[in-house]
Amino acid sequence: MSKKYMLVYTGGKMPEGEAEQKRVVKDWETWYNRSGKAVIDQGNPFTPMSKNISSDGRISDGSADCLASGYSLIQADSLDAATAIAKGCPVLKDGARITVYETFKAPGM
Known about the structure:
single chain; flat; 4-stranded antiparallel beta sheet
């Protein structure tokens, strides 16, 4: 039974120039095609604009720990299988790091 996994990207860089943008788009298309139906939400990159809300309700600018740069949502049979899929993600070519999180359905939802 497959589960859902959130790939959270941190770091990396945006492509500069038309040739690099085309390369990046092609790399992503190749990864999506190779991953098949495993990619259930291609996700999006994040801007550096963010807010933090603490448990006491205080709001502050910026990221509390590290700046996430984007995400994708995939499905796989295990964390190891999800990690193997993530290992081919083109965001790694541009210096980013990927953290793979297993998700679960919250009770009552």
